[in-house]
Amino acid sequence: MTCKVNSVFYHVSAVLVTYNPDLETLFTAIQAISKQVSNILIVDNASLNFSENWLEGFKDQMPAKLYFLHQKENLGIAAAQNIGIEKALTLGADFVWLLDQDSIPSSSMVAELLAVMTCAQSKQETFPVAAVGPAIVDRCSGKNYYFMTDRDGFPHKWTPSKVIQELPMFQEVTVLVASGTLISIEAIKYIGGMRSNYFINHVDTEWCLRAKAMGYKLLGVPTSKLEHRFGDTTKQVWIFGYKEVIYHSPLRNYYDIRNTLLMLRDTPMTWIWKAHFIGRFMRLAYFLVFAEERWLRLRYMTLGMLHGVMRISGRLETKTNHCSMLPVSSLEKYKCGKLIKS
């Protein structure tokens, strides 16, 4: 499928969430982002090594206007994204482009994603497109990660066929990784924002499944690549064949389990997809056997299971094992295009 890039100017705001970032990587990311958007909204989760003063040295050199939205505490990825999206709304953005602090986009990514968004909408007027996203290249292993799709009702990892010489312009998907994803503001008003009290893990998965349940389409762009770091480290292990295993901290194991259980209740999905997410718990057994800090992981996994069953959400306070509720964005109160008053 071919389509010319729409010549209409769109206001795109980049929402870049930071938390104790590697400053060299962050500078490279800001440089790459700045040439493609109207403004960059840096939402900082109380970093210790990073402040607005760091930006002053090159703020005037960037093509896009930089906004620094400092938070007094770590609110997590979901609440930070909502804060950035809210600011984008006040600036009149048509689209928001979500990015993590360690993600480096290609120089033409926004143009590529916008072309697919506008092209798909014009060719397929029967469905609205909520978001489009790139394929991910893991910065540690160099491996390409493509898209999770639905094939005959079953979860399926889409990868390009080896017999195809040219990649398709886009591929309909079920889930997009948040970093690199371009989202329509109008879709956010209808679908709602991210769930702040998920804090981290499955924030993007839940939003994508909610969008799908509300009749929206999500599109992956195989030719568009984003350099992104998955986890703390990546290792090759043999589990009935060599596989890439992404290692996270023990605390992330807590959020993984808890938010999976919350998502199964919060978000409409088929029983097949529910079984898929429950089945992913099996991979956590690997970390209890082969990863470091096994007993700490077991403790956090058990706590995550307990909190998920009890529907406890928020930011886990590790000293007390209790969760602090996070501020709920007005975006989370949108339902079917209407602001629901509490």
Automatic annotation (TrEMBL):
- Superkingdom of this protein's organism: Bacteria
Q: Could you tell me which residue ranges the Glycosyltransferase 2-like domain spans?
A: 13-117
Report the SUPFAM superfamilies cross-referenced here.
Answer: Nucleotide-diphospho-sugar transferases
What CDD domains does the annotation carry? GT2_RfbF_like (cd02526)
Q: Does the keyword Cell inner membrane apply?
A: no
The protein's GO terms of the molecular function aspect are:
glycosyltransferase activity
| One Pfam family recorded for the sequence | Glycos_transf_2
Which of UniProt's keywords are assigned here? Glycosyltransferase, Transferase
User: Which NCBIfam families does this chain map to?
Assistant: rhamnosyltran (TIGR01556)
Q: Which family does it belong to?
A: Belongs to the glycosyltransferase 2 family.
The name under which this protein is listed is Glycosyltransferase 2-like domain-containing protein
| Species in which this protein is naturally found | Methylomonas lenta
At the highest ranks, the source species' classification is: Bacteria, Pseudomonadati, Pseudomonadota, Gammaproteobacteria, Methylococcales
